[in-house]
Design a protein that fits this description.
This protein has about 160 residues and is mostly helical. The chain has 6 helices and no strands. Helices cover about 75% and strands about 0% of the residues.
Length: about 160
């Protein structure tokens, strides 16, 4: 059942490519994708059907959703230079974390911290706020949380602490 839910997220994410950003159809597919992302893991754990395949399928679904959102949203957003610099800085920190994980633990390490989860929720909500709050204001909150989250994740990876 969980893999079917994840498959629905993949389908909805692909369908995002066919609708204009911020259209009612785009928002509906966006929300369905977010909802299925929230529940597939829970369903897998509750039904005792979590698997390596399901985990990889979830990662693929996340990737497709992110790419679809970037392709649809970036061309219509006016992103200031200072925000691009901040986004790249967060990406660099995340890349350093991945490299650190390989060096310190000899494997690919990601930490699913509470702050990572909160950042993901706030980032997901960001497109829903753009019609009422300017990006330059909401981005400060999201990027602030993402920066703290990335630094915290790096600390956990390098110290070997389990979250």
């Amino acid at each position: 059942m969980a893999n079917i839910i994840t498959g629905c997220r993949i389908l909805c994410s692909v369908l995002l490519f066919f609708f204009p950003a911020f259209s009612p159809q785009f928002y509906a597919l966006y929300l369905i994708s977010g909802f299925t992302d929230m529940i597939d893991g829970t369903v897998a754990r509750k039904t005792n059907t979590d698997s390596e395949f399901g985990s990889k399928l979830d990662t693929i679904a996340d990737f497709i959703f992110i790419v679809a959102c970037l392709v649809k949203l970036l061309p219509v957003l006016n992103i200031p230079t200072w925000l691009w610099i901040w986004i790249v800085t967060i990406a660099v920190i995340k890349i350093i974390n991945v490299i650190s994980g390989f060096i310190c633990q000899k494997k690919f390490v990601t930490e699913h911290t509470i702050m990572n989860k909160f950042t993901g929720v706030v980032l997901f909500l960001l497109p829903l706020t753009l019609s009422s709050i300017e990006l330059k204001y909401t981005a400060i909150v999201v990027c602030g949380m993402a920066t703290f989250s990335a630094i915290q994740e790096g600390h956990y990876i390098r110290s070997g602490k389990e979250v």
